[in-house]
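User: My instructor asked us to take a sequence, write out its structure as tokens, and then describe one feature of it. I'm not sure where to start. Here is the sequence I was given:
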Amino acid sequence: MFLGIDVGNTRLKWALYEQAEPGARLITQGAEFLENIDKLADGAWGDLPTPTRMLGCSVAGDAVKLRVAEQMEELWEVVPQWVHASPAEAGLSNGYDHPSRLGADRWVAMIGAWHRMLAVSPPRPLVLAMIGTAVTVEAIDAHGRFLGGLILPGHGIMLRALESGTAGLHVPTGEVREFPTNTSDALTSGGTYAIAGAIERMIQHVRQRCGAEPACYMTGGAGWKMAPFMSVQMELVDSLIFDGLLEIAERRARQA
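Assistant: Let's start with the prediction itself. The structure tokens for your sequence are:
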């Protein structure tokens, strides 16, 4: 049994697989808000089959990782292991100025997306958008080199920034419209199209840089909200971080 963990800005997502290899059968999965991590051993994890390995990625600090480890120690004799971005792993090379400073979730999701693409096509450029509390948009060339990426506020952060910095904008969330005619729709549409525009601009950059049409993937908790409003077709895949963790876990086991 293999336990994959993805600690984001808002929630901890977990998935238990039959084994640590790509395509492994998913046994069960779940999510908890970060403030509820200390309830996992007595709650969602209490009746799980015992995992023999755990690998996770986290954008939270060491204190959150410690809380996760404490919950695991109550139940299992499994040593928590965490992925950190490195100069190269699982067929990708990291073009960040300081590779270790790249967010682990970004790195793992790119590995998942890269191998998902290779399973269905020859190597080609790739653009990955991860839509969550924050939004990231990553570019990879056809040789598996991470070229760079964008970070921008997620939709909720945009709305809260406008509400706190602008008088009179405390309004309910609206609908996405091409031509909004009320403030609620204008706010929702503006945030949605701002994110869409950043993604589409990165796709243009990759086309120009690589001279080829990139494979385009979208993931993250709010990906399903964004996907319908993209002018470029993107494959929505919820599991890319877990796919990446499985890929890394198998390769590390082979190298051990």
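For the description part of your assignment, you could build on this observation: The radius of gyration is 19 Å. Try explaining in your own words what that tells you about the chain.
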